[in-house]
Design a protein that fits this description.
268 residues; alpha/beta; 4-stranded antiparallel β-sheet; single chain; Rossmann fold
Length: 268
């Protein structure tokens, strides 16, 4: 399929969204406000280009046996790259996506259709409010992938909100949080500490952190994935670390809860 380049105005954010051919391969990219936001390969939805999403996918791959359907809540739609991956790897999974911009999901779905058989429910609204409307539901995984940097969507950060996300998990579920930060990674440090405290309240050992190792060593701007939940605690820590390190992308750093807590202290 070769969808035409197209664009739409997003009423909530006020930005222009475009879907255009990727310059480097046969995929497609979603641009919002002129910035590349997502990459999709329609021919191979199991291929993920962006490193932080690949690390999230690796965690999902590690938590449950291959092919086992799971129930996932995605907070933030983008071009639905991860829902496409889940359907390709775990057919029959029930997925729900929440996005604030009403126009975005339908725009993406019309230009870049989902793999056949995808079970996806789309909800429009604020992620925290929609989570409350879903109270009582339990998910095997919750993925928070909304830009929440300094001065952006602050109510979608912090100990209380992370506690709400952990409460939405099954006993053996996993929470994945994408943290995008500037050089110095001070925001990451605060959010890692907040998730550590939320985990303690939930009776969990703490959060893992996955990132490019150079990014962490030099406190460079970029994305770090925080992960927590019973699905991780069910694995022997060194075996889990080894599996995630091997999966990459490289150079890779995989920090266990104690190391993540030490990182938060250092960045604080």
């Amino acid at each position: 399929m070769t969808p035409p380049a197209s664009s739409i105005h997003l009423g909530e954010s006020g930005e222009q969204a475009r879907i255009v051919p990727d310059e480097h391969d046969d995929g497609w990219v979603l641009q919002i406000g002129g910035a590349v936001q997502s990459h999709v390969d329609l021919a191979d939805p199991g291929r993920i280009r962006y490193e932080y999403l690949r690390r999230m996918a690796n965690v999902l791959d590690t938590c449950w046996p291959a092919g086992q359907p799971v129930r996932i809540l995605h907070l933030g739609a983008g071009a639905l790259t991860l829902p496409r991956y889940v359907q390709a790897r775990r057919p029959g999974s029930a997925q729900t996506v929440v996005d604030l911009d009403r126009e975005l999901p339908s725009f993406v779905l019309s230009a870049l259709p989902l793999p056949e058989g995808t079970d996806l429910t789309v909800l429009i609204g604020d992620a925290r409010e929609e989570l409350r409307h879903l109270a009582g539901g339990r998910f095997d995984a919750v993925v928070l992938d909304i830009y929440t940097g300094v001065d952006a969507a602050g109510h979608l950060t912090g100990q209380d909100f992370y506690g709400e996300l952990l409460d939405a998990l099954t006993e053996d579920g996993v929470l994945l949080v994408n943290i995008g930060d500037d050089a110095g990674l001070h925001f990451l440090g605060r959010q890692a500490l907040a998730l550590e405290l939320a985990c303690a309240e939930a009776g969990l050992s703490g959060a893992w952190a996955l990132a490019d190792s150079t990014l962490l060593e030099q406190a460079q701007a970029g994305n770090v994935v925080l992960a927590a939940g019973g699905a991780l605690a069910a694995h022997e820590p060194e075996a889990l670390r080894s599996a995630l390190l091997t999966a990459g992308p490289h150079p890779a750093a995989v920090l266990d809860p104690a190391q993540t807590a030490a990182l938060a202290d250092r960045l604080g």
